[in-house]
Amino acid sequence: MTALWGMLTLLVSGATCVYQEKGRPGLRPGYGKALEERMSLMENNMDKINHSIQEVLNHVLPDRAASNTTTSTPTRDAGLLGSNIDGAQLWQQSQQLPELPYLPSSPLMERLPATLSTTAPLATDSRLPSIQVLQELVELFFAMIHPFAPLFCKQNFIANMFAPDRQVLLHGVVAVSFRFWKRQAPSAAERESFVRVSREEVLLKTIDVCSLVSTQALALLALDAIGQGPGPRTLNLMGMLVTAVHQLGLAKSRSSTTPETNTPLVRNEDPDDGMDSSNVQVEEKRRLFWTIYGLDRFSSVSHGQSGGIDTKTVKLSYPSSDLDWGQSTVPEWFQAGLQSKPAHAHCNAKIWHHNIDLLALLDRSNQLLIQPVNLSLPAHCQEWQSIFRRLDIAMSTWFENLPAEIRDRPTDFDPTWVMLHATFHLINIRMYTVAAFPSTTSPYLKPSSAARGRCRQAIRTVASLASSLQPHELDRLNPMFSFVVWVAARSLIILWTTGYETAYGSMPTDLEPLLNVLRQMATRWLCAQRYADLLQLILDTKNNPGGPTGLEIFNDTRRTSYGLQNLLGTLAVPPAPDAFSGSFDFLDMPLLDVSDFGTSRMGAFGAENDGDWL
Ligand SMILES: *[C@@H]1O[C@H](CO)[C@@H](O)[C@H](O)[C@H]1NC(C)=O
Ligand SMILES: *[C@@H]1O[C@H](CO)[C@@H](O)[C@H](O)[C@H]1NC(C)=O
Ligand SMILES: *[C@@H]1O[C@H](CO)[C@@H](O)[C@H](O)[C@H]1NC(C)=O
Ligand SMILES: *[C@@H]1O[C@H](CO)[C@@H](O)[C@H](O)[C@H]1NC(C)=O
């Protein structure tokens, strides 16, 4: 203690004590307090260091943690070195002997490059939760998020989760999975702080790197942002992701059998695709691409912009099934505009294939809705209408051609099946809402009453799909499901406030189940809360003398939800505490550029009966 005190004194003054003639021994006033503060700081730090050491020891000492670490390395304990060595011992050994070759114990692991598998577990970064919490979070991630964003081979992920070069993935998992945490500890405040730190870490660690792992982490962060709602953060992350797709060449896989016929004369290095990567890595790349493709499509729709990935440039096969991971069957090639044929793939992979086809249709419909039209030119309007009709037919053909096992609801809950059907209805509702309630009309583009009826039908289907889902099933859905529900609810309110719902005055049928789903999903995803708040604003003020607050903004189909949030968000909700909570969005159609042209909406409704264009 005395020695420590002396040391501290030296630390503080930084010089030897020289007593001046008039100076007095002892501490100058104020010094004691400063020293006390530094001491307790040091004690705290020592405690933390002790804690970290204990954690590392727990992980590497076989007698302490044998039973617990083996659960995380299920593939390593069978039949190694003649004796029954458990995972913890193997980890310890590989730490001492990093050059120890990895001994495969399953055909899948065999394909992994040795360097990946022999990495020692790291003493995790103190900015991450404890190892035990991390392990539970990873399990939560695979249970709740991974089914709709199946980026990883789980076996591979778990076996290498503490490898230093994959730490950024743990940050991604923390950012996206803590919302499902049910235990008391870590506390809500601690969890929030872990999430905040991990969001920053992923950004910091992916700005200077572009690799498969960094892009996987970025995809998780983008999913997290999309779950908070549209806004600059989501747009920026999507921009980074799309750039990474180009840098890594994820949209194209070189095939030895079909050499490229057209060669650019100037280009970057080809990414060394498939050269020395395992089948698992090739499949992870493919899945990363198709996951980003889905994020990009939904993000572009909810922001009213065109997507960052041009479907025509995609030269890649569909993802392969979870059971196979590209080991034995070669998946079919994706071709824009062609519906995937019923293949030998496992059902779950097949749903994903059809979803990919549907996302291409989502993109086409979005392009149509955001494309500017000159309403004073009959030819422009006719062309727009004919593209609309072609797309409408393509949509119903797509649905009719679905194999029965994809069209009919499976007995077991399947989040990808729900999302596939929700996406189909989303496309219809967006298209029909614009056709039924164009924000500007002209003699050449009149509101369509047929579209109004079909819009109502699609809303009814979404409401019945939504109300058939149990709370624990809603927990397992992509946050974009809440966007679909919101689009349906907003269109329903437009129908209602324009007098096409008989129940005006109370609440239109089907609105309640849609709102319930949003409230339920809001416990996990902030975007659902914001959608619910906006709808509630209209409902709460529906009896106001001047009509519901902000209705003319709410029901203008040209408005982006981004704009809607900016204009109505403060009325609807107290400002969100989260600094990253961007803003809102919806139908988003800067469709009709010509502002002072055309008759008013209501005026045009009268003329509907003389022939519907749809
Ligand atoms: C470090 O922590 C362990 C258990 O948490 C405790 O038993 C030990 O006394 C601590 N050591 C010091 C120096 O604080
Ligand atoms: C393993 O973890 C559980 C809790 O997860 C704990 O109760 C148990 O004591 C641990 N066992 C060892 C050997 O550390
Ligand atoms: C739309 O077409 C009219 C008629 O040709 C033309 O006068 C007008 O400038 C066009 N508007 C825009 C925004 O291009
Ligand atoms: C939207 O709100 C305005 C103003 O409240 C109302 O006149 C109009 O009928 C509503 N519906 C549509 C589709 O514009």
UniProtKB/TrEMBL annotation:
The keyword S-adenosyl-L-methionine does not apply. Residues 1-17 form the signal peptide. Residues 234-325 form the Xylanolytic transcriptional activator regulatory domain. CDD domains: fungal_TF_MHR. GO terms for cellular component: nucleus. It is found in: Nucleus. Residues 253-278 are annotated as: Disordered. SMART domains: Fungal_trans (SM00906). PANTHER family: C6 TRANSCRIPTION FACTOR, ZN(II)2CYS6 TRANSCRIPTION FACTOR (EUROFUNG)-RELATED. This is Xylanolytic transcriptional activator regulatory domain-containing protein. It comes from Cladophialophora chaetospira. The lineage of its organism: Eukaryota, Fungi, Dikarya, Ascomycota, Pezizomycotina.
